[in-house]
């Protein structure tokens, strides 16, 4: 304490605590790359203060608008898996690599774009060009509309996924297969069955709900 000239373990009982000035919070690299006519919205807050984000338009975005390239780390294994985001891979020097985004400082804003569950809500198409992945709008996007993406036909073949989004009873379109060694299995609390992806578990749980 500079007032009484003593070194103290805690705050000074005579003159009280110090006034603490906090550093300014700097947005992550991914958030700083967001175009000015797009915005991030918190859609859900999960345990551990984990935010589920979506990308929304602030003004009309014309059809055939291209975004990209997608920024991520090339990896032979997928270390960061989210059932609400597309799994992306590219060909580099004859090898097939995942575009991994373990944290917001390793990617750009495109990592926040969620996958489309059906053709009605799809606004973007993902495709590979010259070893990079780009997103392009497939229709005009109105203000306050969320940007959602699915694979282009050729890229879907490359990713071994369905090229056409079909609106199912569960309204969920399955993700391309991901090696079981990369993610923990999803377990049904009703019957104990295990699934490699959350979307498959969600579809399965609809069966239990119908029976009830």
From TrEMBL:
Keywords: Metal-binding, Transcription, Transcription regulation, Zinc, Zinc-finger. GO terms for biological process: regulation of gene expression. The keyword Metal-binding applies. One of its GO terms (molecular function) is zinc ion binding. Transmembrane segments: none annotated. Coiled coil: none annotated. InterPro entries: SET_dom, SET_dom_sf, Zinc_finger, Znf_C2H2_type. Residues 186-212 form the C2H2-type domain. This is PRD15 protein. It comes from Grallaria varia.
């Amino acid at each position: 304490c500079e007032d009484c000239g003593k070194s103290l373990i805690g705050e000074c009982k005579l003159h009280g605590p110090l006034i603490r000035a906090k550093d300014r919070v700097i947005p992550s690299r991914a958030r700083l790359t967001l175009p000015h006519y797009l915005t991030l919205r918190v859609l859900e807050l999960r345990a551990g203060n984990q935010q589920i984000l979506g990308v929304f338009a602030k003004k009309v975005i014309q059809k055939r608008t291209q975004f990209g390239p997608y920024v991520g780390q090339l990896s032979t294994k997928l270390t960061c898996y989210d059932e609400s985001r597309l799994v992306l891979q590219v060909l580099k020097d004859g090898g097939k690599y995942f575009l991994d985004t373990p944290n917001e400082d390793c990617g750009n804003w495109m990592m926040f774009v969620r996958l489309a569950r059906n053709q009605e809500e799809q606004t973007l198409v993902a495709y590979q060009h010259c070893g990079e992945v780009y997103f392009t709008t497939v229709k005009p996007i109105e203000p306050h509309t969320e940007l959602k993406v699915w694979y282009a036909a050729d890229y879907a073949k490359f990713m071994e996924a369905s090229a056409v989004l079909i609106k199912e009873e569960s309204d969920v379109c399955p993700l391309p297969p991901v090696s079981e060694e990369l993610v923990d299995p999803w377990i049904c609390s009703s019957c104990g069955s295990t699934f490699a992806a959350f979307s498959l578990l969600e579809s399965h749980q609809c069966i239990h709900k119908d029976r009830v």
